[in-house]
C-alpha cells in the first residue's frame, strides 16, 4: 500500500517534471504571446484552457510557470542548505565565542519579518526589472534568507555527532580530525542535509506562490505558479473559466506528492 | 624494567572533582583490573589516560607515563600518534562505539591509515579478523558495521584496537553489553591476546567476578579513589576496605535456590 502510493506520487512528479522540462516543445504558444482578438477566450478549440485577460494561452503559461517554479525552488533550497552547512560548522565549534555569535545570528535571522523585507526590496526595484531577474531575485532571496532553520538543525546535529561513542572510538584509534569529519561524520550530516532539502523544496514552492499572490514574486510576463494564482483574486474569472484553478490544482497535486514521498521515505528509514 | 603504564591523576568536570589522585601501574604483559561501581569515575579514568577527557568537558592533572614517556605534556599531534598505536581502546558498547553506516572494510582501512600509509598486505585484515574469531571473508568486510551482532561488533572493536599491536589495551567495560556466553568468549579472547601477543591489559569494569579470574591484580575504585589493591585472592579472601567487603559480599556464591 505504502509503496503503491509512493510509486504513484513518483510517477505524477516525473510527469510534471517532464512537462516542465519540455515546456518550450509542448506548449502550443510562447508564454507571452498576446492574441488581441481573443481575450478571455473560453476553453476548447484553439486554446485548450482558454486565454487570460490579455489573450495569452493559459496552457502555455501554466507549462512555463511549472518550469519556473519547479526549477527555482530546488535551486533556492540547495542555496539554503549549502549556506546553512557552511555557517553551522563554526556554529558547532568548541570555541564558545564563535558558537555564541552564530547562535545569535541565527536567532536574529529567524525572527526577522521576511515578508516586509521582501515588500521593501520589491519597492526599491525599478518597475521595469526584467522578469527573469525578478524570478532569480525572488528565489535567490528565499534561498539566502532560508539558511537559519537548517543551520540550527545542522549545528545541533554536529554537536550530537561530536558527542557520539563512535567519534570517541575513532579519536581513541588515533584517526586524524579531518578524516573523522569526512569519513565518520559526513555520512550522518549528509543524510540530515538531504532531509532538510526535501523539507525546503515544497516550502519554497509555497512561499513563491504566496509572494506571487501579493504581487511580490516573479514579475509579468514570466509566469510562475505564484503570479498565475493572483488571478484567483477575481472570482468572476473563475466562474467564466474554471481552468483558472488549474495552477492551484497542480500546486496541490505536487505538494501532496512531495509530502507523501517524504512520509513514506521517513517510514522506510 | 619500566612499567608499560604508570599514572597518578586527578580529574574534574568544571568544579566537580571526579578522580582524586588515582594511582596505578601496569607491567609489560600484565592484566590489571580496575573495579568500581557506576559513578566511581571508571570511564573518566579511561578517557583521562587517553587524554580524551577534554572532548567531554573535563580536565586532568597529574602524570601519565606510557612506556616511560609523559603523555600529559604532549601536543595534540603527538598524542594522536600514540592513540591506537601504543594504547588500544576497547569501548563498552558496539551499538554506540561503531559507526553503523560504515562498512567493516572502511573501519579497518581508516584505522590502518591513522598510523600507516597505503593499505596493508592482502591477507592482513583476514588474519586480524580471524585472531578475534571473526570471519576474514570479503563478504564479511563488505557488511555495514550496523548489521553486525553485538558479539561480532565487540570483536571488531577489539580487532581495531589491536591492529597496530599496542603495548597496552585499555578496555572500558568491554563485556557489559554482551550476553553471558559471549561475555565469557570475549574474556577468553582477551586472555588469549595477552598470552600470544604479550599485550598488557587494563580492564575497567563494574563486574569483579568476571574480570578477577584473568587478572594478576585488582584495584578497587570507590568515589574517585583507589581504596584497595591486591591479587584476586587478596581481594576475595581478605578484603580490608568496607567498600570492598560490600562488593565481595554482594557476589552470588550459590546460584541454586536454598531448600527449606
Helix-strand blueprint:
The complex is a heterodimer of chains A (269) and B (260).
Chain A: H1 2-21, H2 23-26, H3 58-91, H4 96-111, H5 114-124, H6 131-145, H7 148-162, H8 165-172, H9 177-213, H10 225-229, H11 235-240, H12 246-268
Helix pairs in contact in A: 1-3, 1-12, 3-4, 3-6, 3-7, 3-9, 4-7, 7-9, 8-9, 9-12
Chain B: E1 5-13, E2 16-26, E3 31-35, H1 42-49, E4 59-66, E5 69-70, H2 76-82, E6 87-90, H3 94-97, H4 104-113, H5 124-131, H6 138-141, H7 150-162, E7 168-172, H8 180-197, E8 200-205, H9 208-212, E9 217-222, E10 225-230, H10 232-237, H11 242-249
Parallel strand pairs in B: 3-8, 3-9, 6-7, 7-8
Antiparallel strand pairs in B: 1-2, 1-4, 4-5, 9-10
State the CATH superfamily name of the domain at 5-98 and 166-249 in chain B.
Answer: P-loop containing nucleotide triphosphate hydrolases
Instruction: Count the E strands of chain A.
Output: 0
**Proportion of residues in β-strands of chain B:** 15-25%
Radius of gyration of chain A: 22 Å
Q: How many strands, what sense, and barrel or not for the largest sheet of chain A?
A: none
Mean pLDDT of chain A: 85
- Shape designation of chain A: elongated
Radius of gyration of chain B: 19 Å
CATH H level, superfamily name of chain A:
MetI-like
Please state the structural category of chain A.
mainly alpha
Query: First CA to last CA of chain A: what distance?
Result: 17 Å
* Count of alpha and pi helical runs of chain A: 12
Helix content of chain B: 25-40%
Largest sheet of chain B: 6 strands, mixed
In quaternary terms, these chains amount to: heterodimer
Helix content of chain A: over 70%
Q: How are helices and strands ordered from N to C of chain B?
A: EEEHEEHEHHHHHEHEHEEHH
Tell me how many strands of chain B there are: 10
Amino acid at each position: 500500500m505504502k509503496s503503491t502510493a509512493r510509486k504513484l506520487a513518483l510517477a505524477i512528479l516525473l510527469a510534471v517534471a517532464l512537462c516542465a522540462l519540455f515546456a518550450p516543445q509542448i506548449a502550443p504558444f510562447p508564454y507571452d504571446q498576446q492574441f488581441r482578438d481573443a481575450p478571455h477566450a473560453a476553453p476548447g478549440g484553439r486554446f485548450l484552457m482558454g486565454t487570460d485577460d490579455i489573450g495569452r494561452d493559459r496552457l502555455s503559461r501554466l507549462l512555463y510557470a511549472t518550469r519556473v517554479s519547479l526549477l527555482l525552488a530546488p535551486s533556492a533550497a540547495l542555496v539554503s542548505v549549502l549556506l546553512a552547512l557552511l555557517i553551522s560548522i563554526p556554529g558547532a565549534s568548541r570555541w564558545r565565542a564563535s558558537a555564541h555569535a552564530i547562535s545569535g545570528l541565527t536567532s536574529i535571522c529567524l525572527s526577522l519579518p521576511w515578508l516586509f523585507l521582501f515588500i521593501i526590496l520589491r519597492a526599491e526595484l525599478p518597475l521595469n526589472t526584467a522578469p527573469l531577474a525578478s524570478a532569480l531575485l525572488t528565489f535567490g532571496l528565499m534561498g539566502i534568507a532560508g539558511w537559519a532553520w537548517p543551520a540550527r538543525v545542522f549545528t545541533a546535529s554536529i554537536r550530537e555527532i561530536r558527542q557520539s561513542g563512535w567519534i570517541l572510538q575513532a579519536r581513541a584509534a588515533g584517526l586524524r580530525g579531518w578524516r573523522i569529519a569526512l569519513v565518520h561524520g559526513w555520512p550522518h550530516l549528509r543524510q540530515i542535509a538531504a532531509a532538510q532539502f526535501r523539507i525546503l523544496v515544497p516550502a519554497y514552492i509555497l512561499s513563491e506562490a504566496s509572494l506571487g499572490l501579493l504581487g511580490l514574486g516573479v514579475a509579468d510576463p514570466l509566469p510562475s505558479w505564484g503570479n498565475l494564482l493572483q488571478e484567483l483574486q477575481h472570482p468572476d474569472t473563475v466562474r467564466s473559466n474554471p481552468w483558472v484553478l488549474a495552477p492551484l490544482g497542480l500546486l496541490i497535486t505536487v505538494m501532496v506528492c512531495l509530502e507523501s514521498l517524504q512520509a513514506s521515505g521517513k517510514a522506510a528509514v | 624494567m619500566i612499567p608499560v603504564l604508570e599514572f597518578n591523576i586527578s580529574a574534574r568536570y568544571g568544579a566537580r572533582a571526579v578522580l582524586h589522585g588515582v594511582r596505578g601501574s601496569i607491567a609489560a604483559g600484565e592484566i590489571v583490573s580496575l573495579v568500581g561501581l557506576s559513578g566511581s569515575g571508571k570511564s573518566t579514568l579511561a578517557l583521562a589516560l587517553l587524554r580524551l577527557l577534554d572532548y567531554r568537558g573535563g580536565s586532568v592533572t597529574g602524570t601519565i607515563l606510557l612506556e616511560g614517556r609523559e603523555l600529559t605534556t604532549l601536543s595534540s599531534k603527538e598524542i594522536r600518534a600514540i592513540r591506537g598505536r601504543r594504547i588500544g581502546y576497547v569501548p563498552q558498547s558496539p551499538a554506540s562505539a561503531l559507526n553503523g553506516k560504515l562498512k567493516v572494510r572502511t573501519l579497518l582501512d581508516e584505522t590502518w591509515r591513522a598510523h600507516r600509509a597505503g593499505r596493508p598486505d592482502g591477507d592482513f585484515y583476514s588474519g586480524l579478523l580471524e585472531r578475534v574469531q571473526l570471519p576474514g571473508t570479503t563478504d564479511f568486510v563488505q557488511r555495514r558495521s550496523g548489521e553486525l551482532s553485538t558479539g561480532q561488533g565487540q570483536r571488531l572493536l577489539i580487532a581495531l584496537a589491536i591492529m597496530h599491536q599496542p603495548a597496552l589495551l585499555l578496555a572500558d567495560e568491554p563485556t557489559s553489553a554482551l550476553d553471558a556466553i559471549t561475555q565469557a568468549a570475549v574474556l577468553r579472547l582477551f586472555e588469549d591476546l595477552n598470552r600470544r601477543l604479550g599485550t598488557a591489559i587494563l580492564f575497567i569494569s563494574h563486574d569483579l567476578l568476571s574480570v578477577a579470574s584473568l587478572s594478576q591484580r585488582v584495584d578497587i575504585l570507590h568515589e574517585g579513589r583507589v581504596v584497595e589493591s591486591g591479587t584476586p585472592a587478596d581481594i576475595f579472601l581478605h578484603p580490608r576496605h568496607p567498600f570492598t567487603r560490600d562488593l565481595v559480599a554482594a557476589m552470588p556464591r550459590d546460584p541454586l535456590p536454598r531448600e527449606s
